[in-house]
Structure formats: structure tokens, C-alpha cells
Amino acid sequence: MTDTVKKILVLGCGNILLRDEGIGVRVLEKLEEQFVFSDNVELIDGGTRGLVLTDPISESDYVIVVDAVINGHEPGTLYRLHGDDLKLSLAFKNSFHDMDLLETLCCVELITGKRPSAVIVGIEPKVYQTDPSLEISQVLLDKIPEMIDMTLKEIQAAGGSWTPVPASTEGEKEYVSGHTV
């Protein structure tokens, strides 16, 4: 990798035991199953680890966080938060993990003197505080292809690339350009 190639980190965040709260991890799993990424793209299940992610974040130029975000809109509303929007979201603690992310970004900046660019690909959850379960609500399941598309666009805009993994067995569905075929 040359100095001009940006290192891109995609973090799927959330607690999969709390239904929609785990949507970021579920989207990351789909990305890993369905695509092969260029060498400058790394996908990590960030779970709810926060400051433990300091090293991978500090080694990155661009961070894409996929997560549930509470902004008071209808469940399934998609968000792209960056720049001032990201700061506003962090200030109001709209995501389950934003304060951890903000603290981690600040720690990275203190340690290394630089802060990677960051964006959140988020979605308004429906069920997340009660009924512990591994199941994601149907409204969020239906939005996973759009979240994948948003994440792929962020990867491409940051200088990464990807190719679909061909379906390997009969009956298995392949995701291509916004649609399951």
C-alpha cells in the first residue's frame, strides 16, 4: 500500500443480544459474507467495545461506523452523520455507542496528533430496550440492503473497492447492487 492509499476501517457496532441495537454487527456480517474488499479496507465487529478500538482507529485514515442511532424519527429511518452532524449526534448521545466513539476519537487524537475522518451509517431502531433476543425487527431487516449500499458508497468514496462474492451453492442468494437475486 502506498502513502496515497487511505486505510479505511468499517466498524459494525452494537449488542446483538438486544435486538435492533445489534444492527451494525449484522450489517457487517452481511458485508463480510457478500463482498471481497480491497487491501486498504478492514472490517471489524466493534460490538460495544469503545476504547478497546483505539489501535485500529488510530491506524486508519477513514472510519465508517455502522450502528443504531436514536434521533426520534420513525423506526427504519436511515442516517448519514459526518462533520458537524456527527458532532451534534455525539453531543446529544443519539447512538448507543457515540460517546465511546467520541472518547476513542479524542484519545486517538491525543495519542497520535491526528484524528481519522469518521462517518456514521445509522438507522433508527424499533426494539432495543426490552425483550432481549438475537432477532432484528422486520422494519430494520428490510433496510439492511440500503445500509449495505450506503456503506459500500462510503467505502468507494474514501478510496476503497469491493467485488461481490459469487453465490456458491444452489438456493443461496447473492446481493448485487441493491437487490437480492
TrEMBL record:
Sites where the protein binds Ni(2+): 21, 67, 97
Single biological process term from Gene Ontology: protein processing
Lineage of the species this protein comes from: Bacteria, Pseudomonadati, Thermodesulfobacteriota, Desulfovibrionia, Desulfovibrionales
A Pfam family: HycI
Originating organism: Desulfobaculum bizertense DSM 18034
Keyword terms: Aspartyl protease, Hydrolase, Metal-binding, Nickel, Protease
Organism domain of life: Bacteria
Gene3D superfamilies: HybD-like
Protein name: Hydrogenase maturation protease
Similarity comment: family membership: Belongs to the peptidase A31 family.
UniProt region (Disordered), positions on chain: 161-181
Bias type Basic and acidic residues, positions: 170-181
GO molecular function ontology, one term from the record: enzyme activator activity
